[in-house]
Each structure stands twice: as structure tokens, then as C-alpha cells.
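Possible regression after last week's pipeline update?

I re-ran a chain I had predicted before the update to compare outputs. Posting the input and the new output here so someone can diff against the archived version. Not blocking, just want to make sure nothing changed silently.
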Amino acid sequence: MRKSKQRKQRRAGSKSDRTPSALRKHAGPQNLAEYLAKSDRFKETWNRAEHVVSKMRSDKLSLQAASRDFQINPRTVIRLAGSALQKGANGKYRPRPDDRLLRVLVLPFSDGLHEIAVRSSLQASVTGEYWAAVQKYLATGDESALKRIRRKTITEAGGKRIRLLKDIADLERLASAGVLSFESLYAKVA
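New output (post-update):
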């Protein structure tokens, strides 16, 4: 009897001993500084995990199929990006309509490209829409997509609003310098 009581106390104690920092052990970075402080290996894994969630959402893929596309274990995706997923009654994961995963993206500014961090899949979508409009302009000279961008700002992870560069002269100057390309959308892992 005594041993079973001790086991119960140990189990109960182990749950209450967990501190918020212990629970956050596997939580992802919360801002750009935390992201940049991580190892290159972690950054690569983090980027793949967030890409899996985005691919699941956009292409209506299962966790396993999207994970296969990005060559990452589905359990790793659940560990890192689980807050962006919902487990259904059937036991399968599906992406939430939007999420708060940190994404480090690159945006053009008049003085060149800068990495910024956003904590919203909606902000990342606006950034993607913006890059598509920039690429369309550079490929065709058609400014209409740039003019149709709904938002002129996006909100960085720290709450700071950042204006999207829409000045044609600046965009052409950056493009002629070879700075703008579709690959520029996501942060580079050094």
C-alpha cells in the first residue's frame, strides 16, 4: 500500500513541479532576437515545420504528406508547431485557420532587404501577396497588383507597424542591383 501511495505522490508532484519555463522548453522563438540566437540547425528545422503547416493549409494536405514534402518528421512538426494544429476526433491533425507561429521573412526597404519577424499567418500571407505583386511588376511592368495590395503595413512580432515599399523607383533600383528575387521572401539560414 505504501509504495502505491508514494508513486501517486510522485506523479502528482511531477506535474506541479513544472514551471512555465520548463513547459516552454520546446516552444519556438517568440521574436527575431530569439530566432537569431538559435543554432542554424534549429532555424532550418523551425522553417521546415512552419512551411509544413502552411502547405497543409494552402494545399489541404495531411500532416504526413506535407511533412514528406519538406523532409521533416511529423512528430517534430507537432513538437515545434503544435499550437498551429488541431487534432480531430479521428486522431488526424489539421491546421488551424490562422496561427501565431513566428515567421522570419525578408522585406525590401529603400536601403535594401531586411529580415523581420511576424507572429501571424495572416501577416505572412499579406507579405506573400506583396512579394507576388512585386514579382509581377518586375516581370511584366504591370503596377496594378501593387496598387491592389489591401494593406500598406504589416505588424512585426514586437507590435511595430512596417510600411510596405511600393515606390516603383526604389523597387526598380533594388531589382537592377539584383537584390529582389522570389527566393528573398524567407530568411536565409546562415
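Follow-up from reviewer: compared with the archived run. DSSP finds nine helices and six strands in the chain. Marking as no regression found.
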